[in-house]
């Protein structure tokens, strides 16, 4: 009976330690960034590990080449480039979160763990 209590105490201690590590990872994700581009570099989006867009850069030469300029500019093309770069950055940020959490869990796949950071 006492062995069971010792085991339970050990499990609770491990859970507390894992929670602290996960909180540290969550905090560090705000300072880690990924980037993705679209339109051969026309638009670049930088996103952090908390899925926050930190910056959007646009190459004016590439934008003009792809979408035109002035009143004739293809606004939909520019919007599509921004959306595509955001989606690419989001995928990379998801992978970053998975990689960081795998270090905490030792590669153990815990369902729903990735949802904690959205």
Mind sketching the topology for me?
Elements: H1 2-29, E1 33-38, E2 43-48, E3 53-58, H2 60-67, H3 75-105
Antiparallel strand pairs: 1-2, 2-3
Overview of this protein structure:
With 118 residues, the chain is α+β, with helices and mostly antiparallel strands. The chain has a single domain (2-117), classed as Ybab, Chain: A. 57% of the residues lie in helices and 15% in strands. The chain is built from 3 helices and 3 strands. The chain has a 3-stranded antiparallel sheet. A hairpin with a 4-residue loop joins strand 2 and strand 3 (53-58). The model has no long low-confidence stretch (mean pLDDT 85).
Short précis:
It is built from 3 helices and 3 strands; from the N terminus they run H-E-E-E-H-H.
Features:
alpha+beta; rod-shaped; 118 residues; 3 helices
Q: Predict the CATH topology.
A: Ybab, Chain: A
- In spatial order, strands of the major sheet run 1-2-3
Q: What is the annotated CATH architecture?
A: 2-Layer Sandwich
List the total number of helices. 3
